[in-house]
Amino acid sequence: MQRDELADFLRRRREAIRPAEVGLAEGPRRRTAGLRREEVAMIAGMSVDYVVRLEQGRSSQPSTQLLGALARALRLSDDERDHLFHLAGHQPPPADGTARHARAGLLRMLDLLGDTPALVMSDLGETLAQNRGSLLLTGDLSGFQGLRRYHAYRWFTEPESRMVYPAEDEQRHARVIVADLRAVAGRRHGDPAVARLVAALLEASEEFRGLWAEHEVAVRRFDRKVVVNPRVGRLLMDCETLMTPDQRQLLLVLTPADDEARERLELLRVLGLEEFHAEV
């Protein structure tokens, strides 16, 4: 662990970020360049004291989980994230073809979208980041581990994961999920992460086996779908998908498709996150 170098790097990256880039107001009384330490701590979900000790070069070695949270909070690029891991005495996450951290540019776009529901996903369906609007609409989809990280695996092995859509739309969504995974498997032939996911699904789900055998292929780009929220009911949403050039990460933006959905989405914003977390 290179404590002094780590401290300097974290401090300089914090000072380089404008508050607006992470959805914070500049404010007339702000005298600190970039973000305050307490703001980094809040975004990363750690104590202010630990951030202070890291920047002063007197902390214990941070875990890989904490480093990942700091990388997201500081909007680090892939190269900067790897450098952060090296300075802290850890190997960066393995390059198995699966993106585990949302790109810095996509995180900035999430912030700029405000309360418009949006999330960043890997091409394998792992939720890498969500904004407030997405959390309100569908709940937190980023805390899963193992194969459960992937939307396709939860869809075909955990019936409760389908409750976000009406029952009459389940078959269509299942086909879309499998067709998209087929496209990824073709594009990333030989990737062990893709092979593990497909093998696990073939073993776990008869429904998946049947759909996989049909060899339908379709990349998700635009969709209009009904989302079922437990507090405000059904919302007809347009889902626009923007891909990074390497097609490894996606930005999904959901906008209300009619006036009723717009009104219900506004009601969700009023209810806020605190009540939502209390209910779930």
Explain how this protein is built.
The protein has helices at 3-16, 37-44, 48-55, 64-73, 78-87, 104-112, 132-138, 151-157, 170-187, 192-204, 206-213, 259-279, and strands spanning 118-122, 127-130, 222-229, 233-243, 249-256. The chain is α+β, with helices and mostly antiparallel strands. The chain folds into 2 domains: 3-87, 434 Repressor (Amino-terminal Domain), CATH 1.10.260.40; 104-279, Beta-Lactamase (2-Layer Sandwich), CATH 3.30.450.180. The chain has a 5-stranded antiparallel sheet with strand order 2-1-5-4-3, with helices on both faces. A hairpin with a 3-residue loop joins strand 3 and strand 4 (233-243). Helix 2 (37-44) packs across helix 3, helix 7 crosses helix 12 and helix 10 packs across helix 11 (206-213). It is globular. The two termini are 39 Å apart. The model is unreliable at 276-280 (pLDDT under 50).
Reconstruct the topology from this structure.
Blueprint: H1 3-16, H2 37-44, H3 48-55, H4 64-73, H5 78-87, H6 104-112, E1 118-122, E2 127-130, H7 132-138, H8 151-157, H9 170-187, H10 192-204, H11 206-213, E3 222-229, E4 233-243, E5 249-256, H12 259-279
Antiparallel strand pairs: 1-2, 1-5, 3-4, 4-5
Helix pairs in contact: 2-3, 2-4, 4-5, 7-12, 8-10, 10-11
Give the overall form.
globular
In CATH, the topology of the largest domain is named Beta-Lactamase
Order of helices and strands: HHHHHHEEHHHHHEEEH
The residue-averaged pLDDT reads 86
Secondary structure tally: strands? 5
The top-level CATH class of the largest domain is Alpha Beta
Radius of gyration: 20 Å
CATH architecture of the largest domain: 2-Layer Sandwich
Helix/strand/pairing class, anyone?
alpha+beta
Total domains, how many?
A: 2
Distance between the termini: 39 Å
Strand order of the largest sheet: 2-1-5-4-3
- Count of helical stretches: 12
